[in-house]
UniProtKB/TrEMBL annotation:
It comes from Roseateles saccharophilus (Pseudomonas saccharophila). Keywords: Glycosyltransferase, Transferase. SUPFAM superfamilies: Nicotinate/Quinolinate PRTase C-terminal domain-like, Nicotinate/Quinolinate PRTase N-terminal domain-like. Belongs to the NadC/ModD family. One of its GO terms (cellular component) is cytoplasm. Residues 112-270 form the Quinolinate phosphoribosyl transferase C-terminal domain. One of its GO terms (molecular function) is nicotinate-nucleotide diphosphorylase (carboxylating) activity. This is Putative pyrophosphorylase ModD. Residues 27-110 form the Quinolinate phosphoribosyl transferase N-terminal domain. Gene3D superfamilies: Aldolase class I (3.20.20.70), Quinolinate phosphoribosyl transferase, N-terminal domain (3.90.1170.20).
Amino acid sequence: MPDISFPARLDDRRLLALLQEDVPHGDLTTDSLPLRARRAEMAFHARGPLRLSGIEEAARLLTLCGATATLAHASGESLGHGTELLRGQGPAAALLRAWKVAQTLVEFMSGIAGATATMVDALRQAGFGCPVACTRKSPPGTRALAALAVRDGGGILHRLGLSETLLVFPEHRALLAPEDWPGCLAGLRERQPEKRLVVEVGSAEAALEAAAAGAEVLQLERFSPAELAALRDRLRAAGLQPRLAPAGGVTLANAVDYARSGADLLVTSSPYFARPAEVQVSLRQI
């Protein structure tokens, strides 16, 4: 079995926190059985096709518990049913401690990666190169895992947090005087010249106004593909060419329709709620 020696992308502090959550005071069942001197081998296999994600983190979880781990494949690979992913050896108690955390992590992350990859592949097969950009709206506490999984699926990250991008929401505008709105957008561009100015809009009129005020990307909240196409025509007629990013309700079912209507990128949270992949874990004494 080949050893794919890629390091875990999450640091040990985060991985240890996952273990601490699952085993806060020891493994009561394992510690109460006569297993202290037993050694075992654990193997992970794909139970169905998957886009692999999180396998390096799973391997590191095994080693943090006192076992050894050998990888057969790396995150980002598309694999078939029955493919061996990871094999670990060591004290039975160490493998049992890491077992469910490692398995669940790979299943959760591979589910997100697979859903992202399916959307990206659908776009490419239809002849479109627009990126699939996933938002920061993953379930609380999972953002670091979700971000890795999105990249393993061939997607990009829309924004990981409020510190990295300029994205003006209608909620921001509601707190500003109407006459200050154009000047505020111009001020943002002056104060943050390295950042693109992104403005979320909920209507064609708001989109035209924001584009005229200097918005470089329009995040189109709940626009249908037909509404996006009509807006693009109106913007072009006005001599405006911001990038158009539909958001809210973008799924695999309509991704190609949005691309066909002229979207420059797709903003979505749907991969975060995909069904987890299935990974079979077997354990034997050695």
